[in-house]
Amino acid sequence: MTPVPPRTVDVVVIGSGSGGKMAAQELARQGRRVALVEDTRVGGFCPYLSCVPAKSMLLSAHAGIPFDEAVRVREEAVAGRDDAGAVEGLGADGVQLVRGRGRLLPGRPLTVEVDLPGGRAERLRSGTVVLAAGSTPVRPPVDGLDDVPTWTSEDALSATERPGRLLVLGGGSVGCELSQAYAGLGSEVVLVERDEQLLPGEARWVGDFMAGTLRGSGVEVRTGVTARRAEPDGRGGAVVHLDDGGEVRADRVLVAGGRSPRTQNLGVEAAGGSLDDSGAVRIDSRCRVLSPQGRPVPGLYAVGDVTGVSTYTHSANMQARVLAENAAGRDRETDYAAVPRAVYTAPPVFCVGMTAAQARRAGHDVDSEMFPLGQLERANLIGIGCGDEVPGGVEVVVDATTGVVLGAACAGREADSWGAELALAVRARLDVDLLEEHVRGFLTWSEAVYPAVAELRRRRLERAQRAAA
Ligand SMILES: Cc1cc2nc3c(=O)[nH]c(=O)nc-3n(C[C@H](O)[C@H](O)[C@H](O)COP(=O)(O)OP(=O)(O)OC[C@H]3O[C@@H](n4cnc5c(N)ncnc54)[C@H](O)[C@@H]3O)c2cc1C
Ligand SMILES: NC(=O)c1ccc[n+]([C@@H]2O[C@H](COP(=O)([O-])OP(=O)(O)OC[C@H]3O[C@@H](n4cnc5c(N)ncnc54)[C@H](O)[C@@H]3O)[C@@H](O)[C@H]2O)c1
Fold first, then answer.
1. What is the mean pLDDT of residues 220-243?
2. Nearest CA to 402 among 364, 349, 445, 348?
3. What's the pTM?
4. Which of 234, 237, 307, 435 has the fewest C-beta atoms lying within 10 Å of its C-beta?
5. How far is CA 152 from the centre of its chain?
6. 313-327 helix and 18-29 helix, angle to the nearest 10 degrees
7. Residue 113 and residue 159: Cα distance in Å, rounded?
8. Which atom, in ligand 2's list, is nearest to the CA of 198?
9. Burial code of 374-391, b = ≥16 C-beta within 10 A, e = fewer?
10. Ligand nearest to the CA of 228
11. Which of 173, 351, 417 should be mutated for ligand 2, with most atoms under 8 A from CB?
């Protein structure tokens, strides 16, 4: 058979998830000939298998909708997992879709080999290649896990049957959201997290708030324990043995122990790039892939989960926009300091920037202040009559010397919306003086920010007066 000569385009993007699709469309709108290589669905995980179905199931659970109806609503939200609409959007922007599995080949010019359906292959040559291959779930090292019925988050978000009893392994955002969704839709849920708190990495009170929230939804939360061994229970389910001597019986085990970058067989190193210890593609602040010596590899870029930097759709989108801006000749760098970290339980949490502990480790002289939502006028409006029963609050973390806001955590009703003010404060490096002067609407939840920043400002002025005396 005569080999097909390589096709030359301006840009090849491997992976059409949140990051790759946006990068391809932005670059095509600049007039470049872009080939987008995708081996599954155009759009990647977010619209079909992660963000959208997770939020749909959570909202159904919060609304008390029965499981079967929640499945119907979810399937509508994910458009039946049909990517026709997304494909049409690509066409409108002039992006050429290549269905198949792509990998970089060694040498120059940059060449991507695509395994096409039916055993054929195509080679694409290009001055620019963007890697946007996403991530896959990590399988925790639990002996015997392969012998019992397990789910990944994808399975849980496509399932049409509800397990009577579900064991969730991992108390990060996936574990917390899916525990509340399934508990609300009628499963008995046990959540096991090996760290001492849920949402490890966030402030301790945020983890405790989440544990209280989930327990209030009927989830049995067990922190500080690790699953060690699993075995079939003889009735189609699982018995999972924990390192505290306990065991959990369940019809299904949902594996929610994190995700790892999908860099296997992508050819990153062959093309001169490098991977970090977690297998993520190493990039600089302009999303240029770095060589083992730390220099940008000409023409090679990466965005999204495959970079492991900040594994959210909004971060993948930010990276894609930075890449496109630089391609258009404008100099722009990524800034992850104010990327929101929200968990969409009811009530939700919204964190941004550094926790007080992280700020101290980064060398700041730290001050922080909390204010509970229950003490707001708004709390008295919702018919409880006793504000203390409205859980949650806001914590603002500042540099004590400059007063600049370094981070914040918001937990409680609608925190995923009103927390945005603090994300902008972190991004714009605002100080507490300005936040104290800022006027918030009477009877909004955002009024909680005022007492916290007013107290931080008062302490700062006091310190300044003492220093001047
Ligand atoms: C349960 C869950 C809920 C989440 N909820 C949220 C949320 O509410 N908000 C939020 O911001 N983030 C959320 N996330 C994270 C979000 O889903 C990811 O950060 C985002 O989807 C990453 O996009 P991406 O472009 O990097 O990759 P993906 O969406 O993973 O897309 C990568 C694409 O590349 C394709 N691909 C891979 N390798 C190749 C190859 N060699 N050749 C061809 N194609 C290839 C894959 O088929 C896939 O379509 C959630 C994640 C999970 C698991
Ligand atoms: N609302 C959102 O934006 C949203 C929602 C879901 C996921 N995401 C994204 O997806 C990524 C992956 O989420 P995730 O929750 O899978 O990962 P994660 O890394 O955030 O959390 C995994 C948790 O599992 C625990 N764990 C690991 N092995 C364990 C074991 N054997 N036993 C008990 N606990 C164990 C870890 O200590 C950790 O707390 C997140 O980092 C986030 O970026 C975002």
1. 97
2. 364
3. 0.97
4. 234
5. 16
6. 20
7. 34
8. 39
9. bbbebbeeeeeeebeebb
10. 2
11. 173
